[in-house]
């Protein structure tokens, strides 16, 4: 070939992209799988693929801020004597002390209480900081039983039996030794500085019949006062939700694969589970088929970021949502003002996901006392409260535009989809048509 002949530019493989090649080299060099947090990073069908159909002539909108749009929600009305009465339908998901610093757990409690909603303990037990600052605290009852005791069960305002998590359905969590401090070790009855892996299933039951017995046991321990939630990862939402209801749950928490995690194998995060958007309609169908929609409340989590996401989840049939990763960002995690310190860790502010290493310069996902002291729980709690209030206002704005006087009056009829995939998952028409994949139409 003549050296002066223009060459075709080199073309990289879409299958073997730079990230995939780097992962192959890393695996070949180290012989271990990758662990990280922050949830799925691949692009998936999500709430951005839906649009609201605001009112015009055929629908009548509410007038701005002069007409009320309710946001309250009551969770646990089925059997509990004391259901949770929240001002907003946005709750804080379970994130453990151990994964998070004590200051971060306190900040979550402060922010949630200021906004009139609940927060959740996560694995590892209940801390005085979190209980003291949380008006409504949900106590997670996990397969590991770390930190679990009947006294804390009774101190909680609700109990969440965790069967699965969206980022790792069928798998257990990890907490590496560098985050097992003296306090964490004491709370979890673990040796200090030794890696631990939470169990992937409960040790004392193997199916829905046993779950029913366990729920009854928890009700007796708490004098039938506390709502009992059952949390499942998004895999087979119709059957899992139906079985949770039949087992006696007051509330079902459904976590899609965009849900975050402090640490698990990347193969779990990116290749197990189904998108949050695909979870909601089958779950609602299960509740409707059992005659329990709105009687057993449905909380959806996994990638909720804005008031628009909240409104869309509720329009599809959820009663409330839960946020985790977004709440940490609101506290101050992955903040650009710490960019130099994130770069020193070999990452960048917008991509930091090595929460399990315990070196978070924001002082949130760490047990290092020097780093943790950087987080002011009062200021961070105020930031979270501001964020929750903005999300609520955004959701109200959308609901008013659709002519709804309460967020729970939003419905699938208010939505359309931008892609065939989203239309099929959400079971709403493709924009500009009446066609719902699988159902026909025009």
Proportion in β-strands = 5-15%
Give a short account of the largest sheet.
Answer: 8 strands, parallel
CATH homologous superfamily assignment: Aldolase class I
N-to-C CA distance: 57 Å
Number of domains: 1
Low-confidence stretches: none
Overall average residue pLDDT: 94
SS class: alpha/beta
User: Which strand order does the major sheet show?
Assistant: 5-15-14-12-11-8-7-6
The strand count comes to 16
The number of helical runs is: 15
The CATH class is identified as Alpha Beta
Rg (CA only): 22 Å
Enter the CATH topology name. Answer: TIM Barrel
Shape: globular
For the record, the CATH architecture stands as Alpha-Beta Barrel
Helix content: 25-40%
Features:
TIM Barrel; 13% strand; 15 helices; two-stranded antiparallel sheet; 442 residues; alpha/beta
What is the compact description of this entry?
This protein has 442 residues and is α/β, with parallel strands linked by helices.
What does this structure look like?
It is a single chain. The protein is globular. The protein has helices spanning 18-30, 102-115, 128-133, 150-155, 182-188, 208-221, 237-246, 266-271, 276-289, 307-315, 325-331, 339-344, 369-372, 377-401, 420-426; strands spanning 35-36, 50-52, 73-75, 84-86, 90-92, 118-120, 136-141, 158-162, 174-175, 196-197, 228-233, 251-255, 264-265, 297-301, 320-323, 415-417. Strand 14 (297-301), helix 10 and strand 15 (320-323) form a beta-alpha-beta unit. 33% of the residues lie in helices and 13% in strands. The protein has one domain (35-426): TIM Barrel (Alpha-Beta Barrel), CATH 3.20.20. The termini are far apart. The chain is α/β, with parallel strands linked by helices and 442 residues long. The strands form 5 sheets. An 8-stranded parallel sheet has the order 5-15-14-12-11-8-7-6. The protein has a two-stranded antiparallel sheet with strand order 1-13. It has 15 helices and 16 strands.
